[in-house]
Design goal:
Strand content: 5-15%
Largest sheet: 4 strands, parallel
Radius of gyration: 31 Å
Bound molecules: ligand DVN
Number of domains: 1
Distance between the termini: 84 Å
CATH superfamily: ADP Ribosyl Cyclase, Chain A, domain 1
Strand order of the largest sheet: 1-4-5-6
Oligomer: single chain
CATH architecture: Up-down Bundle
Structural class: alpha/beta
Shape: flat
CATH topology: ADP Ribosyl Cyclase, Chain A, domain 1
Order of helices and strands: HHEHHEEHEHEHEH
CATH class: Mainly Alpha
Number of helices: 8
């Protein structure tokens, strides 16, 4: 017959088993309570989210309505070639740019490469990455005298007249975006051009003129170079750029190959700062 363990050891084993049973019971009860509570809290959570988002979307609808009205009044019922950039002042008052210090990215003749970069690396923001810029980028619109409609065809082209509806919009929002520039700003320019900085471009004729040294500390030029490169950071046009800059804004220039930029864009773990 099997020998029985001494009384002392039997008591100890009994104690351990009792404690384990009690612990198991607490865990089972805890899980059951958690599930019950969760299940009970579900309907309340859904009510909360439904009501909150309904309220939000109503606020957004009212806000968007105001922005639309401010936008439309710039050109509706007007000759599409007689819309100066100031016509969009009420829009800028209704939808001012939030400054994104040290992240604002300007560009000229590099639209594709800059937006490929900012789409993959979220450390910089171009005008077209802002809400207003992204809504209207690539669109055409205009009004005409005697009509309250917005037309998207038959509108004057970019070079058809100076005060055309779309070009005046981009001029006005570019001025506002540059005015909001703060901290270190960056501009991506095209190294395959003989004059990467043109005083006649929007960047040269509007944005540089709106940089304010009260808010903006420096302008970092990133010159995108190709194999058959044409210009580098000692290009004469950059002397003009430096002359145009508001006194007190520091200037520097770095040459970066498009290949290096593409490599950097496609490696999310590479910090933006080491892309050039
Ligand atoms: O800093 C950027 C950005 O903030 C923007 O608002 O202004 C700066 C870029 O303007 P930019 O310096 O004049 O640079 P680009 O490359 O000469 O022209 C920018 C855009 O204006 C072009 O990409 C065109 O837009 P699109 O058609 O590609 O959507 C447009 N643009 C300029 N000249 C044009 C023209 N579109 C048609 N005909 C032209 N002659």
């Amino acid at each position: 017959m099997e020998s029985r363990p001494p009384p002392k050891r039997r008591t100890k084993r009994c104690l351990v088993l009792t404690v384990a049973a009690v612990l198991l019971l607490i865990v089972v009860l805890g899980v059951a309570l958690g599930v019950a509570l969760k299940r009970n809290s579900e309907p309340f959570k859904k009510t909360f989210i439904d009501r909150y988002s309904a309220e939000l979307s109503m606020i957004f609808q009212i806000h968007c309505g105001k922005i639309w009205t401010a936008f439309e009044q710039a050109y509706v019922r007007k000759d599409p070639c007689k819309v100066p950039m100031e016509a969009y002042d009420p829009l800028m008052a209704a939808a001012p740019f939030k400054p994104a210090c040290n992240r604002m990215m300007f560009w000229s003749k590099t639209k594709e490469v800059v937006h490929d970069f900012t789409a993959k690396k979220d450390c910089f923001l171009t005008l077209e990455d802002t809400l207003l810029g992204s809504v209207l980028d690539g669109l055409t619109w205009c009004g005409k005298e005697g009509s309250s409609d917005t037309f998207t065809a038959g509108c004057p082209g970019w070079t058809d007249c100076d005060n055309n509806t779309v070009r005046s919009f981009w001029n006005r929002v570019s001025a506002a975006f540059a005015d909001a520039a703060c901290g270190d700003a960056t501009v991506m320019l095209n190294g395959s051009l003989a004059t990467p900085f043109s005083p006649y471009s929007i960047f040269g004729s509007i944005e540089v003129k709106n940089f304010n040294s009260q808010r903006m500390k420096s302008l970092n030029v990133v010159l995108i170079t190709q194999e058959k490169n044409v210009s580098n950071c000692s290009n004469a046009s950059f002397k003009d750029l430096q002359k145009e800059l508001d006194g007190g804004i520091k200037y520097n220039c770095k040459e970066v190959s498009e290949a290096q930029l593409q490599w950097c864009s496609s490696s999310p773990e590479t910090p933006c700062g080491s892309c050039w």
